[in-house]
From TrEMBL:
Keyword set includes Ubl conjugation: no
GO molecular function, one term: alpha-1,2-mannosyltransferase activity
Catalytic residues (positions): 313 (nucleophile)
GO annotation, cellular component aspect: Golgi apparatus; membrane
4Fe-4S as UniProt keyword: no
GO biological process: cell wall mannoprotein biosynthetic process; protein N-linked glycosylation; protein O-linked glycosylation
Keywords carried by this UniProt record: Glycosyltransferase, Membrane, Signal-anchor, Transferase, Transmembrane, Transmembrane helix
Gene3D superfamilies assigned to the protein according to its UniProt record, in alphabetical order: Spore Coat Polysaccharide Biosynthesis Protein SpsA, Chain A
Coiled coil: none
The organism's taxonomic lineage, starting at the top: Eukaryota, Fungi, Dikarya, Ascomycota, Saccharomycotina
PANTHER family cross-referenced by the UniProt entry: ALPHA-1,2 MANNOSYLTRANSFERASE KTR1, MANNOSYLTRANSFERASE KTR2-RELATED
Main location: membrane
Location in the cell: Membrane
Protein known as: Mannosyltransferase
Length: 425
């Protein structure tokens, strides 16, 4: 009897184990069936999504460009069916080049490019500045290349030369130190004169008194695309004071004390000339990360080193002539940083624009293809590039727009944002 009870107890345990094993197996089978069904649904919807997203690839030419569309009004793929209307009506503006006689070949290349792409339709004046007299060969060649009037002026010595209050001993020591550090143009005296002139004196030249706008042009630059509008007209109609194509980080070794001078200016003026709620202060002061890639900038100040590349800039001369800009420049100039360090006009203009203007008064000319060695910018919308007859590759490594050293995404975030429709033109 005892043996029977033991046998029955063991049999019940075995039966219970078998039932539990069958239950677990059934659960696993149900999970497997559900998972396979889910995979089938995922595969189905993934395939349907791929078909929908690529349905119009052949007509939209997506396979020819891997980048995002970065240019305004480029989500309209019917651009080739539109007629570009150009008018010969001109704004009160000039094309401006600071250039030496020996730079004539590079000046002519830039002129030829801009004339072909833009000025042949408008015939804007060309204004040339130099710290010495232009020779007859330079004048003859540039006059022949221009479609508009050409004019030439010599910069007064007081606007160009190193001021007498600069400590020559400290200046020479700074040159030697920057040369030893292999800082770009660190040992150049004339480069410092140029940066100071472009920061605070170019707009004071009498030959420019008659104009409201300028388009800065440098030797050996290239314009990749036909201009789809007159940028001067865009500036006036949209109340823009400053326009750029490329923005990037500055070399901090050239401006170690610049931001200290800016902060001192703000404290001395008690922020009277700035509107911190509406300006683009964040563009030059924020360090937060964003996007899939970013540059880790080792800045020793609260300046994030972002600046507009001023070899291309279109500006309102009346802004630079204003009392607030001159006050800003003169404060910086008094610190001697143009000579004791190597402050460039690019960070000076950029910080001034970011502080003194409302962010909506600054425009990114994202439809204008442009290159100044070693970087360029090329519109990325296929049909727009066809319409503007662009000769550039949006996917080329030299295209800086989304490069890690570009500040363009910073401008989208902390400047006036990203526009997807054209401005009035």
């Amino acid at each position: 009897m005892q043996i029977y009870k033991v046998f029955l107890r063991q049999f019940n345990k075995l039966l219970l184990g078998c039932l539990l094993l069958c239950f677990v197996a059934q659960i696993c089978w149900l999970v497997l069936v559900y998972h396979q069904r889910q995979l089938g649904l995922d595969s189905y919807f993934r395939e349907r999504s791929r078909e929908a997203s690529s349905r119009y690839d052949s007509s939209r030419k997506r396979s020819l460009n891997r980048m995002l569309k970065l240019s305004s009004n480029t989500y309209n793929d019917g651009l080739l069916d539109e007629t570009m209307i150009k008018t010969s009506q001109r704004e009160n503006a000039t094309l401006l080049m600071l250039v030496r006689n020996w730079e004539l070949p590079g000046a002519l290349r830039s002129m030829r490019s801009l004339e072909d792409r833009f000025n042949k339709d408008f015939h804007y004046d060309w204004t040339f500045l130099n710290d010495v007299q232009f020779d007859s060969g330079f004048i003859e060649a540039t006059t022949a290349m221009a479609s508009g009037k050409t004019q030439y002026a010599v910069i007064p010595a007081e606007d160009w030369d190193r001021p007498s209050w600069v400590n020559e001993t400290l200046f020479e020591e700074a040159l030697q130190l920057m040369e030893e550090k292999n800082i770009l143009y660190g040992g150049s005296k004339s480069y410092r004169n140029m940066c100071r002139f472009n920061s605070g004196f170019f707009f004071r030249q009498k030959i420019l008194d008659q104009y409201d706008y300028y388009f800065r042009v440098e030797p050996d630059v290239e314009y990749f695309c036909d201009f789809p509008y007159d940028p001067f007209k865009v500036m006036r109609l949209n109340n823009k004071k400053y326009g750029f194509t490329i923005t990037m980080y500055e070399y901090e070794d050239t401006i170690p004390s610049l931001w200290d001078a800016v902060e001192e200016y703000l404290e001395d003026t008690e922020y009277q000339d700035v509107d911190m709620e509406n300006n683009a202060y964040g563009f030059v002061s924020k360090f937060d990360f964003f996007g899939k890639s970013f540059a880790v900038m080792d800045s020793n100040s609260d300046y994030n080193l972002c600046h507009f590349w001023t070899n291309f800039e279109i500006g309102d001369l009346n802004f630079f002539r204003s009392e607030r800009y001159i006050k800003f420049f003169e404060h910086l100039d008094s610190k001697g940083g143009f000579y004791y360090e190597r402050w460039g006009d690019a960070p000076v203009h950029s910080i001034a624009v970011s502080l003194l203007l409302n962010k909506d008064e600054v425009i990114h000319f994202d439809e204008l293809g442009y290159k100044h060695m070693p970087f360029g910018t090329c519109p990325s919308a296929y049909y727009m590039k066809l319409q503007e007859r662009c000769l550039c590759d949006s996917n080329h490594p030299d295209n800086i727009d989304l490069n890690v050293i570009s500040c363009l995404r910073r401008w989208w975030k902390d400047g006036s944002g990203k526009y997807f429709l054209k401005h009035d033109s």
